[in-house]
Every structure is written in structure tokens, then in C-alpha cells.
Amino acid sequence: MSCMFEEDLTAYVDGELPPARRAEVETHLGTCAECRQTEALLRRTLTSLPALPEFKPSPDTRRAVLAKVDALPLPLRERLKALLRPSVLVPSLGLAAAMGVAVLVTGQETQSVDVTDAGTLELAANLELVEDYDIVGLDSSEDLEVIENLHELEVQ
Amino acid sequence: MEPESDAHIMQRVAAGDRKAFALLFDRYHASVARFAFRFVGDPARAEELTQDIFVKLYRNAKAYKPTAQFKTFLFRVATNHCLNEVRRGEYRVSHTPTSPQEDAEEGGVDVAAPEGDRPDEAVAGRELERAVGEALKGMSERERAAFTMCRFEGMAYRDIAEALEASEAAVKSLIHRATLAVAKKIEELQAGTLPARSRA
């Protein structure tokens, strides 16, 4: 760099300098032939750039992007909501209750399963889901937070 | 009726509205594709990068705060993605195919002269493309990103600084060095001293 004002010349040409500095550069240009040359070169360059050929992305890009987005799994929260819909949860409760009755009828001793506790079933269903790392978006901090909370519940 | 703001559309995208995402894609895909093309200099790779950037935007929609300009947020995602991919060695910077004929041979992606141009102007445009491509290839990645946002997207230094997570003073330096590099290549082109195209 040959002049302490040189690095400001592009910002000057772009109109990006604060007014005080702009005034200083203008004053300097009146006395420095080298900076005037650089300024002219920069202005010529900026004038020529619009003649560059334009890059046009392929029309297939839109279709490809929308297909990729459609193929993404729903966020975990939405999948959990779907799992906890009554139409899913009630048959699960029914199945668990039937299993409990069958155990009682056969008279076998067993560890008690609290089939009336919807929270237990909910947790089991959730853990099964969240442990499937191919399904869960592990790059989402929100998903990770939900997983962490479920593990804490499991420990308790 | 006023068009829906980008910030509002992003809120819908964050809530999982894929139609809103398509709207945003239509508004900005040309800008992102231009940026990616200037970053890697290869039309086919620019297409891949553009797709990845928009998928990443969709996945990170909740990270967008409506207080920030959407375009700045988008270009932060785009810059980080391009920098990461180039650093991981997924993409080399080539800036080799410059004519529509070559581009068609290398994947059918169009780098077209402006419509209605005369043939001699189209040739001049392709030569200019070669000079700018050579300059971009010789720049640091951050210079290339800053130059592209400034010269092809018309972004203000302040917004570029936010997209690059840099100071405005740093951006001023990056853009100055990059613009001078382009100016020198164009001078070489005009003086007939620009070397023949080199394949990366």
C-alpha cells in the first residue's frame, strides 16, 4: 500500500464512508495523483461489472429443493403430538389393559404394570421414538432438548 | 395489497409451512445461486450448493429472529455453508466453464449473456467473465464472499459484516482488496496480457 488513504478508496466510491472521513478522502484526492488513478480504476471496474453474463440456475433446482424438504421428517414435537392423539393412545391403552387382564386370568405372579397411567405409556412410546436416531433430527437443538428431558424422566 | 414480508413468511416456515417456504425460495433462489456460482465458479456445483443452502434454511428456520434482515440471515447461512463445503474439500474453486457451450457440455447449466446482446457483446461478456473468474479464484474465501455480496447482490457493508460475522472495518478491507484484484485482471484483459484460461 502506497498511501494511507488507499484502503478507503473503494468504500469512498461505494458511498460507504461516514461524512467526516468522506470529506478527508475528497480533500486528499485533490492532492494525490496516485489515489486519483486508483479511484478512476475502481470506478471503471464497477461500471464494467453489469456486462457480466448472468448465471441462471436450472429450473430443476426448485423441484429438487422442494422434494428434499418434503422428504425431511416432521419435527419431533409434531411427531410426538401425532403419537399422543387419542386415536393412537386409546388403542395402546386398550392393548395394555388386555395384556394386564390376561396376566391376571392365567394367575401368574408378575410385576405390576400400571395400565391406567397414560404417562407411562406415553413415555414408553416417546422413548422408542426418540431412540431411533435415524428418525430424530439430532442437529436440532429443540429435538435434543426433548430427548434429554425424556431420558431424565426415564431415570426417575 | 402489500407483499407479505420475508420475516412473516419465515415465521410460517418455522411453523412447518412448506408452501411459505416455496414462496421464499422463489424470491431468493436466483440470489443464492448467483452467490454460490461466484463462490465456486462451477455451475453444476453452484446448483448443488443452492439446494443444500435452502434445505439448511428450512431446517434452521426457527433460528431466524424477525429483528434481523432476512437477506442477511440467508447469506449468513449461504456463506457458512459454502465456506464449510470448500474447507471440507467437497468443492474446489474452479471458475473454468464460462461459455454457454462449455456449460451445456458440463451439465446443461446456463451462464447466459444478457438477453438482446449482440454477438460481439456476448464475446466481450464472456471475456470479462474470464477475467473476473480468474480474480475470484485468486481471492481468499472471505474476500470472495464479501465481494459477491457487495457487487452482485448490492448489500451494504453493514449487512455483509453481519452475514460474515466480521467487523465493518474488516469488510471494508476485504471488499477493497477484492475489487482491486478484479480491476487488475480486467486491466490485463484489456491489455491482452491475461493468461489463457487455466483448468483447475
Q: In terms of per-residue confidence, which ranges of chain A show pLDDT below 50 for 5 or more consecutive residues?
A: 109-115, 128-138
Mean pLDDT rating of chain A: 74
- Which chains share the greatest interface? A-B, 41 and 53 residues
Mean pLDDT of chain B: 86
Main beta-sheet annotation of chain B: none
Distance between the termini of chain A: 67 Å
CATH topology of chain B: Rna Polymerase Sigma Factor, Chain: A
**Could you state the CATH homologous superfamily of chain B?**
RNA polymerase sigma factor, region 2, helix turn helix motif
Taking Cα atoms only, what radius of gyration of chain B do you get, to the nearest Å? Answer: 18 Å
Helix coverage percent of chain B: 55-70%
Total strand segments of chain A:
1
SSE string of chain B, helices as H and strands as E: HHHHHEHHHH
Q: Please tally the helical runs of chain A, counting DSSP H or I stretches of 4 or more residues.
A: 8
**Structure annotation, total helices of chain B:** 9
What's the short version?
In chain A, helix 7 crosses helix 8. Chain A has about 160 residues and is an all-alpha fold.
Main attributes?
heterodimer; A: 156 residues; mainly alpha; B: 200 residues; Rna Polymerase Sigma Factor, Chain: A; 9 helices; Anti_sigma_zinc_sf (chain A); Znf_put (chain A); Putative zinc-finger domain-containing protein (chain A); RNA_pol_sigma-70_dom (chain B)
What can you see in these coordinates?
The complex is a heterodimer of chains A (156) and B (200). In chain A, 64% of the residues lie in helices and 2% in strands. About 12% of the residues of chain A have low confidence. Chain B has 200 residues and is mostly helical. Classes of the chains: A mainly alpha (156), B mainly alpha (200). The interface between A and B is large, with 41 and 53 residues.
